Amino acid sequence: MSRSPTNILDRPLGRSGARSSEGSVVSLSAFAYVYSELVQYHQGRAASISELERRLESAGYGVGLKVLEMTAYRAKETKRETRLMSILHFVSSSVWKSLFGKAADSLERS
User: Fold this and answer.
1) CA–CA separation, 25 vs 22, rounded Å?
2) Distance between CA 92 and CA 17 in Å, rounded?
3) Is 42 helix (H, G, I), strand (E, B) or coil?
4) 54-93 burial, b if ≥16 CB within 10 A, otherwise e?
5) Does residue 39 contact residue 59 with C-beta atoms inside 8 Å?
6) HEC string for 32-55
7) What is the number of other CB atoms lying within 10 angstroms of the CB of residue 8?
8) Other C-beta atoms within 10 Å of 95: how many?
9) Residues 20-74: pLDDT tens digits?
10) What global pTM score does this model have?
């Protein structure tokens, strides 16, 4: 019998239609409801469209940063990438795959 990972960073993210080791996955309708409430919350407190955009961007920044940190931790790379093309390749492959279930369509090099 396999044991579930004890470290929270090692647990699978889980996607719609798949079961995690804990047996629970957030449904798409629950995610849509929370997202809708978040937008309505900030919409009621913003005086203009640009302020609403700024508020939503700041709300999503922290979430995006945590997802990026977790994906980098799980990749277990020994060195930190500092070159732009290496970072873009990491985002288009690893990060994109963990968020959307497949690698990004294309990364053009010039």
Assistant:
1) 9
2) 23
3) helix
4) ebbeeeeeeeeeeebebbeeeeeeeeeeeeeeeeeebeee
5) no
6) HHHHHHHHHHHHHHCCCHHHHHHH
7) 7
8) 20
9) 444 456 778 888 899 999 999 999 999 999 999 999 999 999 888 888 888 888 8
10) 0.58
